[in-house]
Amino acid sequence: MQYFKPATFEEAVALAAGAEGITRILAGGTDVLVQMRSDIVTPDTLIDIKAIPGTHEIAPTEDGGWRLGVAVTGAEMREHADLGQDWPGVVEAMDLIGSTQVQGRATPVGNLCNASPAADSVPAMIAAGARVSITGPEGDRELAVENIPAGPGKTVLKKGEIITALILPPRGKNGGDAYQRFIPRTEMDIAVVGCGINLTVEGEVITAARMALGAVAPTAVLVPAAADALVGRTLDEAALAALAELAEASCNPIDDKRGTIKFRTHVAGVLARRVAQIAYDRAKGAQA
């Protein structure tokens, strides 16, 4: 195995583009190193990008959003009060991943690129409307988070492409987001179902809505019809029931030892109701 520690993304891209065999990017390492020790994967090339300037930076963007470097960890997100004020759902989703020690290394971009359908941070990022900046041999581009996973363990990134940052949009006024999951044990377990919801309100009326589900399909699922179900309404019992029904209809899960298809589908509806209420209350509270 060849190990490289480039000083720039341009150097990292050149290394990745020219590498033979299996290549892995090391930002946090909580997935890559575990997979290596478990003999799940043995990279021919390991490219450590943690030393590249800006990879640990959390910075506001000109339009009022946030740019998080590719190596920003869950611990760093949790400790950033302004980021948590704008996007509490994204921060709390990342905060669910692993132990305190893991939090010091785990990154939302790594969680995304590992492409597990049960990744906790991904539905929350999708609900927030997050995007990623990508640098590759053909130049730079941006993609919505929901367009990165291609299936379990697979992404749409081309050979030589590296994600350089996570971009969260401007929170705007009167908005709130939230994330919850169901797990068999009380902590440090894999989501059986995860749900992220982002709402904007005007008074009591919902003016924008996004919902995403995790662990119910081969990739995290954006549910575009959530906006149709909620926008122009208050979050009353009828709206919650419609959203729960929509969540259940959006599921395409598997049966495994952690949950049956029927159970996962039911839980998706339950979580949609709970998470929507939290996001709604946060959005209304932002008006105060």
Explain what the structure shows.
This protein is an alpha+beta fold and 288 residues long. It contains eleven helices and 14 strands. The strands form four sheets. The chain has a five-stranded antiparallel sheet with strand order 4-5-10-6-7. A hairpin with a 6-residue loop joins strand 13 and strand 14. The model has no long low-confidence stretch (mean pLDDT 95).
- Uncertain stretches: none
Q: Give the number of helices.
A: 11
The total count of strands amounts to 14
Computed CA radius of gyration, to the nearest angstrom: 19 Å
User: What is the typical, i.e. mean, pLDDT?
Assistant: 95
Distance between the termini: 56 Å
Percentage beta strand: 25-35%
Order of helices and strands: EHEHEEEHHHHHHEEEEEEEEEHHH
Can you list the strand order of the major beta sheet?
4-5-10-6-7
The helix fraction, in percent, is 25-40%
* Helix/strand class: alpha+beta
Shape: globular
Main sheet record: 5 strands, antiparallel
Q: How are the secondary structure elements laid out?
A:
Elements: E1 2-4, H1 9-18, E2 23-26, H2 32-37, E3 45-48, E4 58-60, E5 66-69, H3 74-78, H4 81-86, H5 88-95, H6 100-103, H7 108-114, H8 121-128, E6 131-136, E7 139-144, E8 149-151, E9 154-155, E10 162-168, E11 175-182, E12 193-202, E13 205-214, E14 221-222, H9 225-230, H10 237-249, H11 261-285
Parallel strand pairs: 1-3, 2-3
Antiparallel strand pairs: 4-5, 5-10, 6-7, 6-10, 8-9, 11-12, 12-13, 13-14
Helix pairs in contact: 5-8, 10-11
